[in-house]
Amino acid sequence: MKSHWYILFFIPFISSAQNWSENIAPLFYQKCTQCHHTGGIAPTSYLDYQDAVADAASIRVKVQQGKMPPWPPDTTYSRFAHERTLTQQQVDDIVAWVQNGTPEGDTLLAPIPPSYQGVAEIQNPDLVLQIPPFAVNSTGGDVYRCFALPTGLSAQRFISQLEALPGDLSVVHHVLVFSDTSALPLQLDAQDPAPGYSNFGGTGSNSSQLIGVWAPGGGAYTLPNAMGIKLPAGATVVLQVHYPGGITNVTDTTQVRFKFSTTPFTREVFISSPLNHFQLDNGPLAIAPNATPTFYAHYTLPLNVTALGVAPHMHLLGKTITSYAVTPTYDTIPIIHLPNWDFHWQGLYSFPRLLKFPTGTTLYAAASYDNTLNNPNNPNDPPRWTYLGERTTDEMMLVYFVYTYYLQGDENIVQDSSFFAGFESLNHEVVRTVQLYDVFPNPVQERFTVNFFIPEKSDVSMSIIDMEGRKVLDLLDDTFFNAGFHAVEADMGEQPKGLYFVVLSVDGIVRQKKIIHA
Ligand code: HEC
Q1: Of 40, 130, 358, 474, whose Cβ has the fewest other Cβ atoms within 10 Å?
Q2: Are 166 and 195 in contact (CB under 8 A)?
Q3: Do 338 and 252 belong to one domain?
Q4: DSSP 438
Q5: Sign of the alpha-carbon dihedral angle for 445, 449, 450, 451
Q6: pTM of the prediction?
């Protein structure tokens, strides 16, 4: 019994010994520097000790308040894959480090700072569409620019991976990706002499379908194996890019990269908004000056649905938005709660594991708005009547779902394995395709773990390749495994820092995942 007391006493000492080289730099390189580097979207770089120290007081406040890293969903309501959050222990470590005068520690133990410029996660894309060089001038305020990019596809394809790659990370705040089979976006683009055309709420075309959302710090959007979002033959891809105010003459060349499904049969994944401003329980969406109304919507599913993710959307008067589902047996499934809606941090949030909504499940949403001057984002001073529309001064209420029809076992498909401490709770029998899960931790310093699943006993090969496709490490060479989940522990050893891929191959099926060796 006595030894337990020692452990309790020692914990505060351990956390007060935090230093930059061994504790804080590894944490910042994982949680902060994807935005906080020179040329990134954040105003300060935390790649170097000196720069981080110069901002220490502010860092302490922002992490204690939970404002940084930015992660809009309420994690006490529901959890998502790849959450950009700190644990309480990590917050305490940062605070202790600042309180103790930001010690540097032994610089020989510090990891090498990661590099971010132009590193695409999707190598060998099947289609790349890039906007014409666009001179961003936003001294008059935020710019929302749509670019219509013909795909030239002669046959329909299914997108298995999609990645928006900003031309200049310091000026691109979000990218919404749509596909459209009408001629309207191209016409709108042609009418404006500069590249693209201005539109705030969407693309200006009713037939546009959302197919992806990129926010700073986000990498490729990857669908589970054998699932894909349809890109019709002849489709035009429309990128809506948000450039924050205050930029003078910076040229942007944002591109979007696609990988198409190659499996013989691909399950179509849909993105649509069954909860929307056209079907409100207490519509229409009309907001009086100085009012703070809440609008409600619901929708009952006519069939079994597998949900992959969710993306709420409102404009500048939006304050909070919540969505949940109630099954026919009255189980409530919390989906998302955004307690402080911020138009500038839109996201498409993936569930750590796919969710099953059985037939007869009702989806609900409640969205509240603030049309008073207490709302610092109110575009009207004095406040004015605000209605449904696409302009900055209009409003919207949409909850997009990423979904497909349900097949048995879908609820066991994991989108972020690092989220689950162990695999004890997974029902092994029902996942039926080969799965390679995200490496963790990632970025990797030395040791890391790779989890995979095989539906049948097989010989498995696994290797690490570099960006040129050269094999640098063999982890498994035709090694026999029984059906089920398996974990491989490995070590990057003496390999140079940089971007790598882990490649799994099982009976001719090949899967790969990115590794950042930092
Ligand atoms: C997804 C991008 C992103 C990530 C990740 C991120 N930040 Fe930020 N951070 C920003 C942006 C953008 C701003 C400036 C605008 C704002 O405050 O929202 C900012 C502002 C800040 C500020 C205030 C800037 C100042 O002048 O002092 C601090 C402090 C800060 N971040 C700390 C952190 C820390 C610490 C982490 C990691 C634990 C982190 N941030 C992770 C995007 C990010």
Answers
A1: 474
A2: no
A3: no
A4: P
A5: negative
A6: 0.78
pLDDT tens for the chain, 518 residues: list them: 333 444 444 444 444 479 999 999 999 998 999 899 988 889 999 999 999 999 999 999 999 999 999 999 998 888 999 888 998 999 999 999 999 999 999 999 999 998 887 678 898 999 999 999 999 999 988 899 999 999 999 999 999 999 999 998 889 989 999 999 999 999 999 999 999 999 987 899 999 999 999 888 788 899 998 999 999 999 999 999 999 889 999 999 999 999 999 988 899 999 999 999 999 999 999 999 999 999 999 999 999 999 999 999 999 999 999 999 999 988 889 999 999 999 888 889 999 999 999 999 999 999 999 999 999 999 999 999 999 988 888 999 999 999 999 998 898 888 887 776 444 344 433 456 777 887 878 888 888 888 888 878 899 999 999 988 899 999 999 999 987 778 888 998 888 998 899 999 998 888 888 898 98
Minimal CA–CA distance to 352: which of 477, 430, 437, 270?
A: 437
> Do residues 458 and 356 both lie within one domain?
no
78, 178: one domain:
no
**Which residue, judged by its Cα, is nearest atom 36 of ligand 1?**
32
- Establish whether residue 228 lines the binding site of ligand 1, counting it when its CB lies within 6 angstroms of any ligand atom: no
How far is the centre of ligand 1, averaged over its atoms, from the C-alpha of 375 (Å)?
22
Q: 279 and 221, same structural domain?
A: no
Pick from 221, 216, 113: which is nearest to 169 by CA? 216
Within-domain flag for 25: yes
- Looking at the structure, tell me whether residues 93 and 183 fall in a common domain: no
Residue 447 lies inside a defined structural domain of this protein: yes
Residues 141 and 253 in one domain: yes
Q: How many domains does the chain have?
A: 4
For residue 98, give every residue at least 6 positions away whose Cβ sits within 8 Å of its Cβ, in sequence order, or none. Answer: 56, 57, 59, 60
| Best residue among 41, 58, 68 to mutate for probing ligand 1, ranked by most atoms within 8 Å of CB | 68
The DSSP letter of residue 280 is: B
Please check whether residue 437 is in contact with residue 450, taking contact to mean a CB–CB distance below 8 angstroms: yes
Within this chain, do residues 454 and 324 fall inside the same structural domain, yes or no?
no
**Distance from the CA of 15 to the center of ligand 1, in angstroms?**
23
Asked whether residue 417 is domain-assigned, the answer is no
